Amino acid sequence: MPDIKIQSLHGKEFGAYCAMPPGGMGPGMIVIQEIFGVNAAMRKICDDFAAKGYIAVCPDLFWREQPGVQLTDKTPPEWDRAFELYKKFDVEAGVRDLLSTLAHVRSMKGCSGKVGAVGYCLGGKLAFLMATRCDIEATVSYYGVDIDKYLDEIHDIRMPLILHIAALDKFTSEPVRQKILKAITRNPVITAYVYEGADHAFARPDGQNYNKAAADLANQRTTEFFAKNLQG
Q1: For residue 223, how far is the Cα from the chain centroid?
Q2: Residue 197 in contact with residue 168, Cβ under 8 Å?
Q3: Catalytic entry in 169, 199, 206, 216
Q4: Of residues 73, 200, 206, 216, which has the active-site annotation?
Q5: What is the mean pLDDT of residues 17-28?
């Protein structure tokens, strides 16, 4: 369950899971959820970032629909509920909640002031939108969905961004991937990596599409990227 509260831009509070680094100080890291809520997988990612020296926070972005969602990808009813929540999700409201999260993390005791964000699936799209719409220091998107719908915002990205793209992603067709790859060449702060033989959610441990080789490589690149831009 979320263990801190963040105030939205409209004054209402929503929850977030927070993992602190051993020394209690470091850069901030916003972990942006998939369609399954702030579940065990997202909390584990936060814990791993905290172990690397980050104040890691995963906000509950489904709080307007149902606070405290923690689904898995193991059963059809959970998939059905996850897609139901996704269809009802207001992307623009989610971005605003992430901006509130960014302000909150920067103000937290022990935060160095530098903050990064990493998102997966739905969170990958939201990570991209954070890069376009705020001054966050560094951002990583794992297999973000519908990024092609926001390519007119490419030129608004000023800080480093990585896109991890699965070559077999069933939610992003080959023509769409090529459109994204062509568009980002117009902005040198964006780096894209395409993982051959990998499908959507290849970095989700124990997931049906988990690809250890691709996940290990993507996670290594992510670790090095954040170390350079946030800890260096």
Answers
A1: 14
A2: yes
A3: 169
A4: 200
A5: 96
CATH fold of 4-231: Rossmann fold (3.40.50)
Six-digit token string for 85: 């929540």
- In angstroms, the CA 161 to CA 66 distance is 31
**Other CB atoms within 10 Å distance of the CB of residue 167:** 15
Give catalytic status of residue 10 as yes or no.
no
Percent of the chain with pLDDT over 90: 96
Q: Under 8 Å CB-to-CB from 91, ≥6 apart: which residues?
A: 125, 126, 129
Q: Cα(200)–Cα(134) distance, rounded to whole angstroms?
A: 27
| pLDDT score at 1 | 42
Query: Is the pTM above the cut of 0.85?
Result: yes
Pairing status of strand 13-19 against strand 26-32:
unpaired
Provide the residue ranges of all domains of the chain, joining segments of one domain with +: 4-231
Q: Quick one: pLDDT band at residue 2, thresholds 50, 70, 90?
A: low
Residue 200 CB neighbour total at 10 angstroms: 22
Q: Mean per-residue pLDDT for 7-15? A: 93
Question: DSSP states of 77-130 as a string?
Answer: HHHHHHHHHHHH--HHHHHHHHHHHHHHHHHSTTEEEEEEEEEETHHHHHHHHH
Q: pLDDT at position 232, please? A: 77
For residue 34, what pLDDT is reported? Answer: 97
Look up 169 and say whether it is catalytic: yes
Burial class (CB in 10 A: 0-12, 13-18, 19+), 76: exposed
Tokens of residue 102, six digits: 């960014």
